[in-house]
Please model this.
Amino acid sequence: MTDFFADIPKLAFEGPETDNDFAYRHYNPDEVVAGKRMEDHLRFAVAYWHSFAWEGADPFGGRTFERPWFGEGMDLAKHKADVAFEMFDRLGVPFFCFHDADVRPEGADFAETTRNLEEIVEYFAAKMEQTGTKLLWGTANLFSHRRFMAGAATNPDPEVFAWSAATVKTCMDATHKLGGENYVLWGGREGYETLLNTDLTREAEQAGAFLQMVVDYKHKIGFKGTILIEPKPQEPTKHQYDYDVGTIYGFLQRFGLEGEVKLNIEQGHAILAGHSFEHELALAGSLGLLGSIDMNRNDYQSGWDTDQFPDSTPEVARAYYEVIKAGGFTTGGTNFDARLRRQSLDPQDLILAHAGAMDVCARGFKAAAKLFEEGKLEAARAARYAGWEDPANAAMLRSDLASIEARVRDQNVNPQPRSGQQERLENLWNRYV
Model:
Protein backbone atom coordinates (compact mmCIF):
# COMPACT_ATOMS: atom_id res chain seq x y z
CA MET A 1 0.00 0.00 0.00
CA THR A 2 1.10 3.57 -0.71
CA ASP A 3 0.06 6.68 1.17
CA PHE A 4 -0.85 8.77 -1.89
CA PHE A 5 -4.62 8.27 -1.42
CA ALA A 6 -4.34 7.54 2.31
CA ASP A 7 -7.16 9.84 3.45
CA ILE A 8 -9.57 8.98 0.62
CA PRO A 9 -12.19 6.25 1.18
CA LYS A 10 -13.45 3.76 -1.35
CA LEU A 11 -16.39 5.35 -3.18
CA ALA A 12 -19.86 3.82 -3.09
CA PHE A 13 -23.29 4.75 -4.44
CA GLU A 14 -25.21 6.89 -1.92
CA GLY A 15 -27.88 8.45 -4.15
CA PRO A 16 -28.59 11.98 -5.38
CA GLU A 17 -29.30 13.43 -1.92
CA THR A 18 -25.91 12.68 -0.36
CA ASP A 19 -23.62 15.50 0.76
CA ASN A 20 -20.57 13.24 0.63
CA ASP A 21 -18.11 14.40 -2.02
CA PHE A 22 -16.55 10.94 -2.11
CA ALA A 23 -19.69 9.08 -3.16
CA TYR A 24 -21.65 8.38 -6.32
CA ARG A 25 -24.99 10.09 -6.75
CA HIS A 26 -26.04 8.48 -10.04
CA TYR A 27 -23.57 5.71 -10.79
CA ASN A 28 -24.82 2.54 -9.16
CA PRO A 29 -22.89 -0.32 -10.77
CA ASP A 30 -25.51 -2.90 -9.79
CA GLU A 31 -28.54 -0.93 -10.97
CA VAL A 32 -30.24 -2.75 -13.83
CA VAL A 33 -30.88 -0.49 -16.83
CA ALA A 34 -32.28 -1.86 -20.10
CA GLY A 35 -31.85 -5.42 -18.84
CA LYS A 36 -28.20 -5.19 -17.78
CA ARG A 37 -26.14 -3.91 -14.86
CA MET A 38 -24.98 -0.33 -15.31
CA GLU A 39 -21.35 -1.37 -14.82
CA ASP A 40 -21.71 -3.83 -17.69
CA HIS A 41 -23.23 -1.19 -19.96
CA LEU A 42 -20.76 1.62 -19.31
CA ARG A 43 -17.56 -0.40 -18.78
CA PHE A 44 -15.59 2.50 -17.30
CA ALA A 45 -11.82 2.68 -17.71
CA VAL A 46 -9.11 5.00 -16.36
CA ALA A 47 -6.50 6.31 -18.81
CA TYR A 48 -3.06 5.60 -17.38
CA TRP A 49 -1.34 8.39 -19.37
CA HIS A 50 -3.39 11.35 -18.21
CA SER A 51 -3.89 10.16 -14.65
CA PHE A 52 -0.37 9.00 -13.83
CA ALA A 53 2.07 10.05 -16.57
CA TRP A 54 0.98 13.61 -17.40
CA GLU A 55 2.95 16.23 -15.48
CA GLY A 56 0.64 19.25 -15.89
CA ALA A 57 2.48 20.97 -18.74
CA ASP A 58 0.81 23.04 -21.44
CA PRO A 59 2.16 24.80 -24.58
CA PHE A 60 3.27 27.76 -22.48
CA GLY A 61 4.54 26.20 -19.28
CA GLY A 62 6.13 23.13 -17.78
CA ARG A 63 5.30 20.69 -15.02
CA THR A 64 2.94 21.74 -12.25
CA PHE A 65 2.31 18.33 -10.67
CA GLU A 66 4.69 16.75 -8.19
CA ARG A 67 4.11 13.01 -7.97
CA PRO A 68 6.31 10.62 -5.99
CA TRP A 69 6.62 8.26 -8.98
CA PHE A 70 7.89 10.85 -11.49
CA GLY A 71 11.34 9.95 -12.78
CA GLU A 72 13.17 7.09 -14.45
CA GLY A 73 13.74 3.51 -13.37
CA MET A 74 11.69 0.39 -12.77
CA ASP A 75 11.20 1.04 -9.05
CA LEU A 76 9.34 4.27 -9.82
CA ALA A 77 7.33 2.54 -12.57
CA LYS A 78 6.21 -0.08 -10.06
CA HIS A 79 5.37 2.59 -7.49
CA LYS A 80 3.25 4.30 -10.15
CA ALA A 81 1.47 0.99 -10.74
CA ASP A 82 0.83 0.58 -7.00
CA VAL A 83 -0.83 4.00 -6.87
CA ALA A 84 -2.77 3.36 -10.07
CA PHE A 85 -4.32 0.12 -8.88
CA GLU A 86 -5.17 1.71 -5.54
CA MET A 87 -7.06 4.40 -7.47
CA PHE A 88 -8.87 1.84 -9.61
CA ASP A 89 -9.97 0.11 -6.40
CA ARG A 90 -11.17 3.31 -4.70
CA LEU A 91 -13.20 4.29 -7.75
CA GLY A 92 -14.49 0.76 -8.38
CA VAL A 93 -13.72 1.00 -12.10
CA PRO A 94 -13.55 -2.35 -13.88
CA PHE A 95 -10.93 -1.38 -16.51
CA PHE A 96 -7.86 0.68 -17.34
CA CYS A 97 -5.96 1.55 -20.54
CA PHE A 98 -2.29 2.30 -21.23
CA HIS A 99 0.43 3.15 -23.75
CA ASP A 100 3.74 1.36 -23.38
CA ALA A 101 5.56 4.62 -22.64
CA ASP A 102 3.17 5.37 -19.75
CA VAL A 103 4.09 2.28 -17.80
CA ARG A 104 7.76 1.46 -18.41
CA PRO A 105 11.00 3.47 -18.53
CA GLU A 106 12.68 3.98 -21.89
CA GLY A 107 15.73 1.77 -22.31
CA ALA A 108 19.05 2.47 -23.98
CA ASP A 109 17.91 0.44 -27.00
CA PHE A 110 14.90 -1.49 -28.27
CA ALA A 111 15.84 -4.69 -26.43
CA GLU A 112 16.13 -2.97 -23.05
CA THR A 113 12.90 -1.06 -23.59
CA THR A 114 11.13 -4.33 -24.40
CA ARG A 115 12.55 -6.01 -21.29
CA ASN A 116 11.25 -3.10 -19.21
CA LEU A 117 7.79 -3.50 -20.73
CA GLU A 118 7.78 -7.25 -20.13
CA GLU A 119 8.78 -6.73 -16.51
CA ILE A 120 6.01 -4.24 -15.83
CA VAL A 121 3.50 -6.51 -17.61
CA GLU A 122 4.34 -9.23 -15.10
CA TYR A 123 3.83 -6.72 -12.30
CA PHE A 124 0.48 -5.64 -13.79
CA ALA A 125 -0.63 -9.26 -14.12
CA ALA A 126 -0.16 -9.80 -10.39
CA LYS A 127 -1.99 -6.57 -9.58
CA MET A 128 -4.87 -7.49 -11.88
CA GLU A 129 -5.13 -10.93 -10.27
CA GLN A 130 -5.26 -9.35 -6.80
CA THR A 131 -7.79 -6.62 -7.59
CA GLY A 132 -9.92 -8.04 -10.41
CA THR A 133 -9.25 -4.94 -12.53
CA LYS A 134 -9.11 -5.72 -16.24
CA LEU A 135 -7.47 -4.15 -19.29
CA LEU A 136 -9.86 -2.49 -21.72
CA TRP A 137 -7.10 -1.84 -24.23
CA GLY A 138 -3.41 -1.34 -24.74
CA THR A 139 -1.60 0.71 -27.35
CA ALA A 140 1.85 1.90 -28.42
CA ASN A 141 3.13 5.45 -28.06
CA LEU A 142 4.38 6.17 -31.58
CA PHE A 143 4.29 9.95 -31.33
CA SER A 144 6.18 11.38 -28.32
CA HIS A 145 9.78 10.42 -29.12
CA ARG A 146 11.55 12.58 -31.68
CA ARG A 147 12.07 9.55 -33.94
CA PHE A 148 8.35 9.77 -34.77
CA MET A 149 8.35 13.42 -35.82
CA ALA A 150 7.48 12.38 -39.41
CA GLY A 151 5.09 9.63 -38.39
CA ALA A 152 5.39 5.93 -37.64
CA ALA A 153 3.72 3.74 -40.24
CA THR A 154 3.86 6.60 -42.76
CA ASN A 155 7.44 7.66 -41.99
CA PRO A 156 9.73 8.15 -45.02
CA ASP A 157 12.55 6.35 -43.15
CA PRO A 158 12.21 2.52 -43.38
CA GLU A 159 14.09 2.14 -40.09
CA VAL A 160 11.44 4.15 -38.24
CA PHE A 161 8.73 2.05 -39.90
CA ALA A 162 10.53 -1.08 -38.69
CA TRP A 163 10.95 0.28 -35.15
CA SER A 164 7.26 1.19 -35.07
CA ALA A 165 6.13 -2.23 -36.28
CA ALA A 166 8.36 -3.97 -33.76
CA THR A 167 7.02 -1.74 -30.98
CA VAL A 168 3.42 -2.52 -31.91
CA LYS A 169 4.22 -6.22 -31.80
CA THR A 170 5.56 -5.94 -28.24
CA CYS A 171 2.51 -3.91 -27.19
CA MET A 172 0.12 -6.41 -28.77
CA ASP A 173 1.96 -9.17 -26.94
CA ALA A 174 1.58 -7.23 -23.67
CA THR A 175 -2.12 -6.59 -24.28
CA HIS A 176 -2.73 -10.23 -25.16
CA LYS A 177 -0.89 -11.49 -22.09
CA LEU A 178 -2.92 -9.20 -19.82
CA GLY A 179 -6.23 -10.32 -21.33
CA GLY A 180 -6.92 -6.96 -22.97
CA GLU A 181 -10.25 -6.74 -24.75
CA ASN A 182 -9.04 -4.43 -27.52
CA TYR A 183 -5.86 -3.12 -29.10
CA VAL A 184 -5.84 0.53 -30.27
CA LEU A 185 -3.85 2.15 -33.07
CA TRP A 186 -3.51 5.85 -32.30
CA GLY A 187 -1.87 7.66 -35.19
CA GLY A 188 -1.09 11.02 -33.62
CA ARG A 189 1.59 11.85 -36.21
CA GLU A 190 0.28 9.90 -39.19
CA GLY A 191 -0.14 12.87 -41.47
CA TYR A 192 1.90 15.55 -43.17
CA GLU A 193 2.89 19.18 -42.72
CA THR A 194 3.64 20.12 -46.34
CA LEU A 195 3.07 18.53 -49.73
CA LEU A 196 6.47 19.82 -50.83
CA ASN A 197 8.14 16.77 -49.27
CA THR A 198 5.23 14.28 -49.12
CA ASP A 199 4.33 11.33 -51.34
CA LEU A 200 0.65 10.72 -50.45
CA THR A 201 0.35 7.48 -52.41
CA ARG A 202 3.45 5.93 -50.85
CA GLU A 203 2.47 6.89 -47.30
CA ALA A 204 -1.05 5.50 -47.71
CA GLU A 205 0.38 2.21 -49.00
CA GLN A 206 2.72 2.04 -46.01
CA ALA A 207 -0.17 2.65 -43.60
CA GLY A 208 -2.27 -0.03 -45.30
CA ALA A 209 0.56 -2.56 -45.17
CA PHE A 210 1.21 -1.75 -41.51
CA LEU A 211 -2.43 -2.27 -40.55
CA GLN A 212 -2.57 -5.56 -42.47
CA MET A 213 0.45 -6.75 -40.46
CA VAL A 214 -1.36 -5.84 -37.23
CA VAL A 215 -4.44 -7.81 -38.28
CA ASP A 216 -2.34 -10.77 -39.38
CA TYR A 217 -0.44 -10.81 -36.09
CA LYS A 218 -3.68 -10.63 -34.11
CA HIS A 219 -4.79 -13.88 -35.74
CA LYS A 220 -1.35 -15.47 -35.45
CA ILE A 221 -1.22 -15.08 -31.65
CA GLY A 222 -4.91 -15.87 -31.16
CA PHE A 223 -5.84 -12.46 -29.79
CA LYS A 224 -9.63 -12.49 -29.44
CA GLY A 225 -10.03 -8.77 -28.83
CA THR A 226 -10.89 -6.06 -31.33
CA ILE A 227 -8.40 -3.99 -33.31
CA LEU A 228 -9.44 -0.33 -33.04
CA ILE A 229 -8.31 2.83 -34.84
CA GLU A 230 -8.83 6.16 -33.12
CA PRO A 231 -9.73 9.06 -35.44
CA LYS A 232 -7.35 11.96 -34.83
CA PRO A 233 -7.73 15.26 -36.73
CA GLN A 234 -5.44 18.28 -37.02
CA GLU A 235 -3.38 18.05 -33.86
CA PRO A 236 -0.44 18.00 -34.08
CA THR A 237 -0.39 17.44 -37.87
CA LYS A 238 -2.68 19.66 -39.92
CA HIS A 239 -3.46 16.98 -42.53
CA GLN A 240 -4.12 13.69 -40.72
CA TYR A 241 -4.74 10.46 -42.64
CA ASP A 242 -7.03 9.26 -39.80
CA TYR A 243 -9.05 12.50 -39.67
CA ASP A 244 -12.54 11.22 -38.81
CA VAL A 245 -14.87 8.22 -39.06
CA GLY A 246 -15.66 8.75 -42.73
CA THR A 247 -12.00 9.11 -43.69
CA ILE A 248 -10.99 5.94 -41.86
CA TYR A 249 -13.87 3.99 -43.38
CA GLY A 250 -12.60 4.92 -46.84
CA PHE A 251 -9.08 3.84 -45.82
CA LEU A 252 -10.33 0.49 -44.51
CA GLN A 253 -12.30 -0.13 -47.70
CA ARG A 254 -9.30 0.77 -49.83
CA PHE A 255 -7.23 -1.96 -48.19
CA GLY A 256 -10.02 -4.49 -47.63
CA LEU A 257 -9.88 -4.31 -43.83
CA GLU A 258 -13.35 -3.01 -42.96
CA GLY A 259 -14.31 -6.43 -41.61
CA GLU A 260 -11.28 -6.61 -39.32
CA VAL A 261 -11.05 -3.19 -37.64
CA LYS A 262 -13.42 -0.96 -35.68
CA LEU A 263 -13.09 2.51 -34.20
CA ASN A 264 -12.35 4.07 -30.83
CA ILE A 265 -14.02 7.49 -31.01
CA GLU A 266 -13.15 10.44 -28.80
CA GLN A 267 -15.38 13.42 -28.07
CA GLY A 268 -12.53 15.92 -28.25
CA HIS A 269 -11.30 14.62 -31.59
CA ALA A 270 -14.81 14.78 -33.04
CA ILE A 271 -14.93 18.48 -32.17
CA LEU A 272 -11.51 19.13 -33.73
CA ALA A 273 -12.76 17.46 -36.93
CA GLY A 274 -15.66 19.91 -37.08
CA HIS A 275 -18.25 17.31 -36.03
CA SER A 276 -20.28 16.55 -32.94
CA PHE A 277 -19.50 13.48 -30.87
CA GLU A 278 -22.92 12.00 -31.61
CA HIS A 279 -22.39 12.48 -35.35
CA GLU A 280 -19.19 10.44 -35.30
CA LEU A 281 -20.83 7.76 -33.14
CA ALA A 282 -23.93 7.63 -35.34
CA LEU A 283 -21.86 7.31 -38.51
CA ALA A 284 -19.70 4.58 -36.98
CA GLY A 285 -22.83 2.75 -35.85
CA SER A 286 -24.35 3.05 -39.32
CA LEU A 287 -21.18 1.60 -40.86
CA GLY A 288 -20.88 -1.19 -38.28
CA LEU A 289 -17.58 0.23 -36.99
CA LEU A 290 -18.41 1.43 -33.47
CA GLY A 291 -16.05 -0.28 -31.06
CA SER A 292 -15.25 1.88 -28.03
CA ILE A 293 -15.21 5.51 -26.88
CA ASP A 294 -12.88 7.97 -25.20
CA MET A 295 -15.07 10.16 -23.03
CA ASN A 296 -13.90 13.73 -22.43
CA ARG A 297 -14.71 17.22 -23.61
CA ASN A 298 -12.97 20.14 -25.29
CA ASP A 299 -13.08 23.80 -24.36
CA TYR A 300 -15.19 25.16 -27.21
CA GLN A 301 -13.29 28.46 -27.09
CA SER A 302 -9.93 26.76 -27.65
CA GLY A 303 -8.70 25.31 -30.92
CA TRP A 304 -6.85 22.37 -29.42
CA ASP A 305 -7.49 19.14 -27.58
CA THR A 306 -8.01 20.20 -23.94
CA ASP A 307 -9.08 16.72 -22.74
CA GLN A 308 -11.32 17.87 -19.90
CA PHE A 309 -13.57 15.56 -17.92
CA PRO A 310 -17.19 15.48 -19.14
CA ASP A 311 -19.60 17.66 -17.18
CA SER A 312 -22.65 17.99 -19.44
CA THR A 313 -25.39 15.40 -18.97
CA PRO A 314 -27.26 16.41 -22.17
CA GLU A 315 -24.11 16.05 -24.31
CA VAL A 316 -23.24 12.70 -22.75
CA ALA A 317 -26.82 11.47 -23.17
CA ARG A 318 -26.76 12.18 -26.90
CA ALA A 319 -23.53 10.21 -27.21
CA TYR A 320 -24.85 7.21 -25.29
CA TYR A 321 -28.10 7.24 -27.26
CA GLU A 322 -26.03 6.51 -30.38
CA VAL A 323 -24.08 3.81 -28.55
CA ILE A 324 -27.32 2.17 -27.42
CA LYS A 325 -28.81 2.47 -30.89
CA ALA A 326 -25.73 0.74 -32.33
CA GLY A 327 -26.25 -2.20 -29.96
CA GLY A 328 -24.08 -1.11 -27.04
CA PHE A 329 -20.51 -2.09 -26.24
CA THR A 330 -19.17 -5.59 -26.72
CA THR A 331 -15.40 -5.49 -26.20
CA GLY A 332 -15.41 -1.69 -25.96
CA GLY A 333 -16.23 0.66 -23.12
CA THR A 334 -15.99 4.20 -21.75
CA ASN A 335 -12.38 5.27 -21.28
CA PHE A 336 -11.83 8.61 -19.54
CA ASP A 337 -9.21 10.08 -21.85
CA ALA A 338 -9.26 13.17 -19.67
CA ARG A 339 -6.80 15.01 -17.49
CA LEU A 340 -6.91 17.34 -14.52
CA ARG A 341 -6.47 21.05 -15.01
CA ARG A 342 -2.85 21.97 -14.33
CA GLN A 343 -3.93 23.88 -11.20
CA SER A 344 -5.65 20.80 -9.71
CA LEU A 345 -2.70 19.49 -7.77
CA ASP A 346 -4.12 17.30 -5.01
CA PRO A 347 -4.74 13.54 -4.93
CA GLN A 348 -8.38 14.29 -4.08
CA ASP A 349 -8.73 16.15 -7.39
CA LEU A 350 -7.80 13.00 -9.32
CA ILE A 351 -10.44 10.94 -7.53
CA LEU A 352 -13.18 13.57 -7.67
CA ALA A 353 -12.65 14.28 -11.37
CA HIS A 354 -13.32 10.64 -12.22
CA ALA A 355 -16.19 10.31 -9.74
CA GLY A 356 -17.96 13.36 -11.15
CA ALA A 357 -17.48 12.17 -14.71
CA MET A 358 -18.82 8.72 -13.86
CA ASP A 359 -21.92 10.30 -12.35
CA VAL A 360 -22.45 12.50 -15.42
CA CYS A 361 -22.11 9.46 -17.67
CA ALA A 362 -24.47 7.36 -15.57
CA ARG A 363 -27.09 10.10 -15.50
CA GLY A 364 -26.80 10.66 -19.25
CA PHE A 365 -26.86 6.95 -20.00
CA LYS A 366 -30.03 6.38 -17.97
CA ALA A 367 -31.79 9.24 -19.77
CA ALA A 368 -30.73 7.90 -23.16
CA ALA A 369 -31.74 4.35 -22.27
CA LYS A 370 -35.20 5.47 -21.13
CA LEU A 371 -35.80 7.47 -24.29
CA PHE A 372 -34.64 4.58 -26.46
CA GLU A 373 -36.72 2.01 -24.58
CA GLU A 374 -39.89 4.10 -24.79
CA GLY A 375 -39.30 4.45 -28.52
CA LYS A 376 -40.82 7.88 -29.09
CA LEU A 377 -37.86 9.31 -30.96
CA GLU A 378 -37.46 6.18 -33.08
CA ALA A 379 -41.18 6.20 -33.84
CA ALA A 380 -40.95 9.80 -35.05
CA ARG A 381 -37.94 8.90 -37.17
CA ALA A 382 -39.74 5.91 -38.66
CA ALA A 383 -42.78 8.04 -39.45
CA ARG A 384 -40.62 10.49 -41.39
CA TYR A 385 -39.41 7.73 -43.70
CA ALA A 386 -42.65 5.71 -43.72
CA GLY A 387 -43.25 6.30 -47.43
CA TRP A 388 -40.27 4.13 -48.25
CA GLU A 389 -41.99 1.13 -46.66
CA ASP A 390 -44.34 0.95 -49.64
CA PRO A 391 -42.91 -1.77 -51.95
CA ALA A 392 -43.40 0.38 -55.03
CA ASN A 393 -41.39 3.19 -53.49
CA ALA A 394 -38.67 0.89 -52.19
CA ALA A 395 -38.37 -0.58 -55.71
CA MET A 396 -37.18 2.81 -57.01
CA LEU A 397 -33.82 2.19 -55.37
CA ARG A 398 -33.35 -0.76 -57.73
CA SER A 399 -34.81 1.03 -60.74
CA ASP A 400 -33.44 3.46 -63.35
CA LEU A 401 -33.96 7.10 -64.23
CA ALA A 402 -36.18 6.45 -67.28
CA SER A 403 -38.56 4.21 -65.32
CA ILE A 404 -38.78 6.74 -62.49
CA GLU A 405 -39.54 9.52 -64.97
CA ALA A 406 -42.39 7.41 -66.41
CA ARG A 407 -43.74 6.89 -62.87
CA VAL A 408 -43.78 10.64 -62.20
CA ARG A 409 -45.55 11.34 -65.49
CA ASP A 410 -48.14 8.58 -64.95
CA GLN A 411 -48.95 9.43 -61.33
CA ASN A 412 -48.93 13.19 -61.91
CA VAL A 413 -48.21 13.85 -58.21
CA ASN A 414 -46.85 17.23 -57.18
CA PRO A 415 -45.07 16.52 -53.85
CA GLN A 416 -45.20 19.19 -51.15
CA PRO A 417 -42.62 19.74 -48.40
CA ARG A 418 -43.37 18.31 -44.95
CA SER A 419 -42.12 19.56 -41.59
CA GLY A 420 -39.08 17.88 -40.08
CA GLN A 421 -40.46 18.79 -36.62
CA GLN A 422 -37.01 19.50 -35.24
CA GLU A 423 -38.16 21.71 -32.37
CA ARG A 424 -40.83 19.21 -31.36
CA LEU A 425 -38.20 16.47 -31.18
CA GLU A 426 -35.82 18.73 -29.27
CA ASN A 427 -38.57 19.30 -26.73
CA LEU A 428 -39.12 15.56 -26.53
CA TRP A 429 -35.41 15.01 -25.96
CA ASN A 430 -35.22 17.64 -23.24
CA ARG A 431 -38.03 15.99 -21.27
CA TYR A 432 -35.67 13.08 -20.66
CA VAL A 433 -32.44 14.91 -19.83
Summary: The chain has two domains: 32-374, 379-432. The chain has a mean pLDDT of 97.
